[in-house]
Write a structure and sequence with these properties.
Length: 487
């Protein structure tokens, strides 16, 4: 990347020069000392766990010639320029956009937010756009891609990247000929101002249910973070069946188009019929009725299909062309992913890791089988503890057997997480077992399953690792299932 003048990067930022001059050339921008190069601008961002001001001296040793800070730092060499700002995260977002020449303004940006469904809707929108001839990039939980090919820009964050990684990814997409960028926009990204200053053609809202309270504290704060997207987009595609819809209509700064099943909406689904290979429904739009066959099972898939259709219509594409493109939709890895087998057992691997998504997953699966339903799941460590018992309640209420196991325990004891889940199952007197080793838990569920039964393995979906302490170990739910069933 060619260097940029610091004064140009600061355009749009409120700042004060504490030391040095702003005519410097900036050869790199970073908030992580591990990515430093000589002549870099180091931004001292703060989050819940780490204050990067503590790493300023290390950044200087690694080559930083400019520091951006919120509060003063002692013993900074005179050769280092110091810029002070009130909010380093907001400043970093603007600087990253300036450094990479504002790729989000050249791309048509679509942002998808909500508790559940972000990944699926993002991928469905991108697939339809590609079928309609648009070169489309995707940024999200699974990986960052352009037309299905992984971007060269290293993916560090699990879903919405930090501002620097995001702008670098968008720049790469643009340079390779993309016309659209479709991205998941998490509540954390919105609250932490990772997308501050960006404008979206379309913002999509899926739903708001309990999750991420370790980050936001309350559901009100969680909802307020989601709302930010609809103050920075031209069109809002909103799930009318969710209570958050009215708040978006009242407080958002965009034209709102609604979709839903239960309430009157611009795009409404009726006469829903589910099957193993997908879901059929009638789309009601502008007084006309259209027959839809969406190749992904589940009532939740109807919402995902409606959001996809509404988004593409809002962008000016013909409905008939959109509906034709839906036939070419591929499943999203780890999202109601059915593992083929010859034993007559429905085995589903899914990323569901909130109470509502687990409930929806189990209800959908139960409707597709004649036998018993077993669910294997755990909860992530160092994350919202209040949802664990609730997820246990959902598992106990909607399955015949729950096997509580380990997810990504991180720095918590798996036994404590499992005990938290157990409390919820006990409340509904659900049948359960506790097997800490996730592989053994999955194998135990498969061993008990008979023809006509279903085994749902929830929580990790597409992930191929398990986080224990600060270590990442190989663990792939789909791989475990396939190896066992094909042994």
């Amino acid at each position: 990347m060619i260097g940029k003048k610091l004064v140009d990067l600061l355009a749009g930022v409120d700042y004060k020069v504490l030391q040095g001059k702003i005519e410097h050339e900036v050869k790199h921008i970073a908030w992580d000392t591990r990515t430093m190069v000589e002549g870099a601008l180091f931004i001292c961002v703060k989050n819940r766990n780490v204050d990067r001001h503590c790493f300023a001296q290390e950044a200087i040793k690694q080559g930083a010639t400019i520091l951006m800070i919120e509060h003063e730092i002692d013993q900074v060499p005179e050769k280092v320029t110091i810029i002070q700002v009130d909010d380093s995260r907001k400043a970093m977002s603007i600087i990253a956009q300036n450094y990479y020449e504002k790729p989000g303004e050249a791309l048509k940006m679509i942002g998808v937010t909500g508790t559940n469904g972000k990944t699926s809707i993002t991928h469905f929108i991108a697939q339809v756009l590609s079928t309609l001839g648009e070169k489309t990039g995707v940024i999200g939980t699974i990986r960052n891609t352009l037309e299905g090919e992984k971007l060269k820009t290293k993916k560090i964050n699990p879903t919405t990247p930090d501002a620097i990684e995001l702008q670098a990814s968008l720049k790469e997409m643009l340079d390779k000929g993309a016309t659209y960028g479709v991205m998941e926009v998490t509540s954390s990204a919105l609250a932490q101002n990772r997308v501050y200053g960006m404008a979206y053609q379309v913002g999509v809202f899926t739903n708001l249910t309990q999750d991420h309270l370790e980050e936001h504290g309350t559901m009100e704060a969680y909802g307020a973070a989601k709302l930010k997207l609809f103050k920075n987009c031209r069109i809002g595609i909103v799930n009318q069946d969710d209570l958050m819809a009215e708040k978006i209509k009242q407080e958002g700064h965009c034209k709102v188009i609604t979709y839903g099943i239960d309430k009157k909406a611009d795009f409404k689904a009726e006469q829903i019929h589910q099957g193993l290979t997908g879901v059929d429904f009638k789309l009601i739009y502008l007084g006309k009725q259209y027959s839809i066959n969406f190749p992904v099972p589940g009532r939740f898939s109807v919402y995902n299909a409606l959001a996809t259709i509404a988004t593409l219509v809002s962008l000016g594409y013909e409905l008939t062309n959109i509906l034709e493109a839906l036939h070419w939709i591929n499943e999203v890895p780890g999202r109601f992913q059915i593992i083929p087998n010859t034993k007559g057992v429905l085995v589903v691997v899914d990323y569901a890791h909130s109470p509502d998504s687990l409930k929806q997953l189990l209800q959908t699966t139960k409707d597709l089988i004649s036998g018993k339903l077993t669910v294997v799941f755990g909860c992530g460590g160092d994350r919202d503890t209040s949802k664990r018992a609730e997820m246990g309640t959902m598992a106990g209420a909607y399955s015949d057997l729950t096997i509580i196991t380990s997810d990504n325990p991180r720095n918590e004891k798996p036994e404590q997480i499992m005990a938290d889940i157990e409390k919820g199952i006990l409340e509904v007197k659900g049948r359960y077992e506790m097997i800490k080793n996730r592989k053994l838990a999955i194998v135990a569920a498969l061993a008990e399953a008979e023809e006509g039964d279903a085994v749902v393995i929830a929580g990790k979906g597409h992930e191929t690792y398990q986080l224990i302490g600060n270590q990442k170990w190989h663990l792939d739910d789909c791989e475990i299932v396939s190896n066992y069933l094909n042994a």
